[in-house]
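Hello,

I think I submitted the nicotinamide-adenine-dinucleotide job twice by accident. Can you confirm which output corresponds to this input? Input:
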Amino acid sequence: MSNSIRRIGKIGVAGSGAMGRGIAESCLRAGASVLLQDTSAAALRAARKQIERSLQHSVDKGIVEAKNIEAWLSQLEVSEDVAAFMSCDLVIEAVPEIPDLKLEVLKRIEKNVRDVTIIATNTSSIPVTKLSSSLMDPSRFLGLHFFNPVPRMNLAEVIPTVLTDSTVTAAVEYFVREQLEKTPLTVADRPGFAVNALLIPYLLSAARMLDLSYASADDIDNAMKLGCGHPMGPLELSDFIGLDVVAAVAGSIYAETKDHACIVPNNLRRLVEAGQTGRKSGQGFFKYADNVPTTSGPQST
Ligand SMILES: NC(=O)c1ccc[n+]([C@@H]2O[C@H](COP(=O)([O-])OP(=O)(O)OC[C@H]3O[C@@H](n4cnc5c(N)ncnc54)[C@H](O)[C@@H]3O)[C@@H](O)[C@H]2O)c1
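Support: Only one job matched these inputs. Its output is below.
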């Protein structure tokens, strides 16, 4: 496949969860058209509502004009049908971090797009090269890893494999820099890419310290907020990312590296097993009411 650098007009996003809807919103704000696809109609309804709320919030804060919202929302289509991707220039997969599911979804996406469509995965940690094995044409495929919440986070990792056509990498770097106005960080397909290779051992260390009763959850978080100027402590950040996501990413990095720093501590694993996956479930290391941490305490489950 060959792609000269050109503006991407329509973006497809598979999966309308925390990341998919954030990616969709960022693309809308950049003036692009978006087709947001999910197998769950309820998830699509929730995603549209959340995008509307987030855009309205920007109007209320005086960051954007109200007339923009109508124009942006008119560019948003939602569908449960993967065949709707046929009109897209770029399709970004953002379904749960389950290798077999991603392989299956990517295969289905490729069957439903044009030859020139670029396909990307938002995986946090699954080797992009491994995912490319599901495609007939891996030269059109790469990792494009956004951060949560996407509209506010200005970095996107671009992860080409050895099979990715260099023009595809250039087109995606251009899309991130010139259209989304975010910073593209092109990084090799190594365990955890750049950000998670640094972040995950740090988050797991905080959970391990809590498990070993170094200090309370509040105090561990305050150590990094007050002592190092971090806007969020590691336990609150883990809850924000989703403890299931943190555990899945750690598992993928560990599978490749056998680095003990990526072994999931018992307390975190138990919370995930109990469905207490953090902010999205209302309970993780902290309890949440109206999306604000309310109470805390060691969770040596
Ligand atoms: N949460 C984060 O902070 C974060 C950050 C960066 C990257 N990621 C990565 O982004 C991806 C998505 O994470 P998330 O947090 O948005 O997950 P999520 O669980 O919030 O959303 C996943 C969505 O995918 C949908 N889905 C499931 N199967 C599908 C299918 N076959 N076709 C279409 N849609 C399907 C679900 O209905 C759900 O709406 C994962 O790979 C994750 O590792 C997450």
